[in-house]
Amino acid sequence: MSLLVIGSVAFDAIETPFGKTDKIIGGAATYIALSSSYLANKVNLVAVVGGDFPKEDIKLLQDHGVDTEGLQVKEDEKSFFWSGKYHNDMNSRDTLVTELNVLADFDPVIPASYQSSEYVMLGNLSPDVQRKVIERMENKPKLIAMDTMNFWMDIAREELDKTIAMVDVLIINDEEARQLSGEYSLKTAATKIMAMGPKYLIIKKGEHGALLFGEDKVYCCPALLLESVFDPTGAGDTFAGGFIGYLAKTDDTSFSNMKRAVIYGSTMASFCVEKFGAERIVNLSDSEINSRVQEFIDLSQVKISL
Amino acid sequence: MSLLVIGSVAFDAIETPFGKTDKIIGGAATYIALSSSYLANKVNLVAVVGGDFPKEDIKLLQDHGVDTEGLQVKEDEKSFFWSGKYHNDMNSRDTLVTELNVLADFDPVIPASYQSSEYVMLGNLSPDVQRKVIERMENKPKLIAMDTMNFWMDIAREELDKTIAMVDVLIINDEEARQLSGEYSLKTAATKIMAMGPKYLIIKKGEHGALLFGEDKVYCCPALLLESVFDPTGAGDTFAGGFIGYLAKTDDTSFSNMKRAVIYGSTMASFCVEKFGAERIVNLSDSEINSRVQEFIDLSQVKISL
């Protein structure tokens, strides 16, 4: 099945305790598209960049089978730029620079050839723009998943609530789930958030794995035990790409299959953090992915008879 | 198989955001003995109390099938007493009172009828006393597990290292694992700690579950999602009791069976936190335990084919 991905395609400059980068390719949609490209049959990208965005980075996406017909290039403008610095524990970071540039008035256009996309992943963006994408899909997709962040909870809560009400799966982290629901217990938070609309909720807990809620069930996926995280940038987007990519590949939205999709999401994210930016996820083999999935299975599966 | 349990049998006074207790029965060995009594065939208790310890609390242990021949009663002395107050997040507590009393010069005596115990659980105590128990076992047990805490790392590190080197399984929490190893990454910490002697290591992560390391494998057991924790006192000891009790019941020390034992430990601990002190674990049915184990299975198991 084909997958429509929307989000930022951008430049990042990253500083971690292990080093720093110049401007490298980044943005939620970049990570989602690359990650999902290993799984989904077709990835349709909707995004916007400026004239400063290198043609070879667009070609990189195309080489991964990503359709870039929906990637607007505004020749006279500049691409979105984010720069951040991670603290020593890698769990927190300071944003040094945010230049919206082309994202400031991004009006997403969905090419006719994308209209039959069965799966949609709304990467982190203004909830207003995310909602426009849903409204501009002529055929109702089988499943719409959405990422967001605390920034939108702070400044656009009403818009955000409207968009959340329209999606099937919301993917956020534990801090965001607590802020969105006003509840500390993730169980109570999940109940409140699903009452806002989404039938399924994924709460990412970083080094403690991820939780999938829905159909009155819960699934707890572990995280791999890493000796070190080199750069966490994009890990959440890469998770989302692996999750939705697996659903699009298998075309099965049952809870059992979503559990498997969470493992694929976690697998892709575990690669992402091994190098700077998207470096590690541009060149993965199926056998690398499969053996990493097997690691997740070995980590958590038990034979037991009661 | 029979299980020898050593640790404190004591009075606790607990204050949580939900209320406070007078002196109630507490102590590591109390929780371990009660918890394991649902699983192990025979539980042999080695501990010491003062003349102030109520006969009905000793009878409570006996009613759970716990052999109290090794429970010394020092009529003219007072029982160990601990009082603590939990903060609002339940993740930290202040110790208000610690009165060692009979524990100050506890000399563990192992009755002849306990000498054939195949499994041994050394509850949190001075590492010196824990080691005496190992040395006083005339027959080498099949498996010795040990709990400890940061307090002993601070004041008796050398003694502690000697005792750790003699056990098969060490059971500690994430903070303690980091302190013991000097490593932040739990994976690196585990490698260092197992190099100190234990073939297996369990790291408890509270609301994030537990990790079992050994034989170059790792198992990650989730925690149940609780809406609230009423009182965490004794949860770690109750975990240890469920873990070692299951091993003693099944008499199987393979890694696969230890994974199941971690689920039983987590199950028993999940009951413990539901009420004050040991209140919830004095009266459990097999069907309650089985259905809670099933919840852990449902939370974490996935069918997948690669």
- Nearest-angstrom radius of gyration of chain A? 18 Å
CATH topology of chain A: UDP-N-acetylmuramoyl-L-alanine:D-glutamate ligase
Total helix count of chain A? 10
Q: What is the first-to-last residue Cα distance of chain A?
A: 40 Å
Counted up, domains of chain A total 1
Q: The biggest beta sheet of chain A, please? A: 9 strands, mixed
Mean pLDDT of chain A: 96
Care to describe what's here?
The structure is a homodimer of 306-residue chains. With 306 residues, the first copy, chain A, is of the alpha/beta class. In chain A, 36% of the residues lie in helices and 25% in strands. Chain A has ten helices and 14 strands. In chain A, the strands form two sheets. Chain A has a nine-stranded mixed beta sheet, with helices on both faces. In chain A, strands 2, 3, 4, 7 and 8 form a five-stranded mixed beta sheet that branches. Chains A and B meet through helix 7, strand 14, helix 9 and helix 10 of A and helix 7, strand 14, helix 9 and helix 10 of B.
